[in-house]
Amino acid sequence: MKLLLLPTILTAVFGSASAAKDSQYDPIQNFPALVEWFTSHGGQIDPRITLGYEPSTNPKVRIRGMIATAHIEPETVLIHTPASLMISDFDRNHCE
Questions:
Q1: CB-based contacts of 59-63 (< 8 A; 24+ apart in sequence)
Q2: What is the rounded distance in angstroms from the CA atom of residue 27 to the CA atom of residue 32?
Q3: How many whole angstroms separate alpha carbon 42 and alpha carbon 81?
Q4: Tens digit of pLDDT for each residue in 2-32?
Q5: Among 39, 36, 31, 43, which Cα is nearest to 81's?
Q6: Could you write out the DSSP letters of every residue in 12-81?
Q7: For residues 4 and 86, is the Cβ–Cβ distance under 8 A?
Q8: Neighbour tally for 45: CB within 10 Å
Q9: Which residue from 72, 85, 77 is spatially nearest to 34, judged by alpha carbons?
Q10: What are the two backbone dihedrals, phi and then psi, of residue 95, each rounded to the nearest 5 degrees?
Q11: CA-to-CA distance for 64 and 40, rounded, in angstroms?
C-alpha cells in the first residue's frame, strides 16, 4: 500500500521551502486554507499545531515544520486523515 501522507501533501499544495523563498507565496500564511479544506472534507487537525519556522540565529536559515502552540499530552492524535482523503493504490474499503 502506498500512501501520500500530510507532509507530502503540504509540500505538493504549498510548494517547497526553496520555492517559497523565490516567490511571493508563503506556505505558512496559507496553512489555514489547507486546514479549512482538510477539515471540511472530514479530516481532523488538533488546533494546537500549526506550520511555522524554527527560530534560528542565522537569518539565512529557515527550517519549516509543524509547531505546537500549546502543551500536548503524549500519544495525542494530532492529525487524522480519513480514507476518503488518502491517495493510495490500495482498496479504500480496507482502510476503514
A1: 62/17, 62/21, 63/17
A2: 10
A3: 8
A4: 444 555 555 545 454 444 454 556 667 777 8
A5: 43
A6: HHH--HHHHHHSS--TTTTHHHHHHHHHHTT-EE-TTEEEEEE--SSTT--EEEEEESS---TT---EE-
A7: yes
A8: 19
A9: 85
A10: -95, -10
A11: 25
7 residue type, one letter? P
Read off the pLDDT of residues 33-78 as tens digits, 9 standing for 90 and up: 888 999 999 999 999 988 888 888 888 888 888 888 999 999 999 9
Predicted TM-score (pTM) of the model is 0.59
- Treating both helix axes as pointing N-terminal to C-terminal, what angle do 31-40 and 6-14 enclose, rounded to 10 degrees? 120
Cell 500519544 -> residue: 75
Compute the distance between CA of residue 71 and CA of residue 6 in angstroms, rounded to an integer.
Answer: 22
